[in-house]
Amino acid sequence: MKVCASAPGKVILLGEHFVVYGTNAILCAIQKRASVSVESHKDGVCVSSIYGTDVFSSSDDPKSASPHHRPILQIANEAHRTVSVSIESDIPPGVGLGSSSAYCVAAAGAILNQNDSGIIDVALRAERSVFASASGADTAVCHRGGIIEFTGKGHESFDGRTDIVLAVASTGRKHSTVKAVDAVRRNKEQNPEHFESVREQVVGLIGDARAALHSGDLVSLGVHMSENHKCLRDIGVSDAAVDKIVAAAAKTSYGAKLTGAGVGGCVIALVDDSNSAQTLDAMRSAGGDVFEVRVDSEGLRVSQDCAS
Ligand code: PMV
Fold first, then answer.
1. Given a cut of 80, is residue 274 above it in pLDDT?
2. Buried b / exposed e across 82-103, counting CB within 10 Å, b at 16+?
């Protein structure tokens, strides 16, 4: 039997990096998806993706696999499955849009042929086989879809106003989340009081952003996203290219910030139909590769009807 699954990518509206230290984060699934198809295989695990094809024996340690395919081996071994797995994605990799979390969620759903919330833990263990400190926020939103507030112990979803629109600009510079998170940890260790004061600001911004999302107040949500960007600058994960795009987007959008690990990656700006085109133009002129995205209210989709 063939099983197909897909899961959306994501952006972080507020709270990246601080979420690694237990602060809540607000995330939004986006209408770009990773798709995984799985068929039983006589023995071992065969994985095909844009990174090529790898064949593993079931006794292979996941650590021996390349980081791109290691999560698949981890999930298959854990489930005692011998499978052939094919991965496709329209989420740009390595720029903070959740490509690896989406593919871990879709792979866990397809290999286990399940869609319940237990998939989040399986996908997170797979993701942690590559990035041990992953907070789990990305995995949660890629599974749930929509907009969520991740708390570390679970998540609340914002089922009220979920029709936000984002202008996205990729700097085209891929980042290593592991290296960015390590740099923030060093920054925190060198100056714990400063880190704590910035973290407290972010906690306040997230409370205000939550209220703005509940009332559908784009102006307030945008202001708090822009303030969050300043906090990310304060802990050293922005750079000149990102700041230039954020400044350009701030002139016409409701608010703009880097999203994800930073140090390259992507900038998001909160827009609606009145200012999206202008904001995209401004971000393009500032050096970004731009597109508009909307919230994907559907999270993990698992199906035996692989034609749909
Ligand atoms: O890997 P990215 O760019 O999607 O960013 C992950 C977000 C971090 O907060 C930096 C790490 C985490 O595990 O939450």
1. yes
2. bbbbbbebebbbbbbbbbbbbb
Residue of the nearest CA to atom 13 in ligand 1? 134
CA of 64 to the centre of ligand 1 (A): 24
Higher pLDDT, 193 or 160: 193
Sign of CA dihedral 184, 189, 190, 191: positive
Residue 52 Cα distances to 69, 162, 258, angstroms: 10, 37, 31
For the chain, helix, strand, coil in percent to 5 are 40, 25, 35
Distance 38 CA to ligand 1 centre (A): 27
Start-to-end CA distance of the chain, whole Å, equals: 16
Which of 17, 12, 126 lies closest to 68 in space, CA to CA?
A: 126
Residues enclosing ligand 1, CB less than 6 A?
16-17, 19-20, 96, 98, 134-135, 137-138, 177, 181, 260-261, 265
Model confidence over 66-85: pLDDT tens digits?
A: 999 999 999 999 999 999 99
Q: How far apart are CA 88 and CA 80, in angstroms?
A: 23
Q: Is the pLDDT of residue 41 over 90?
A: no
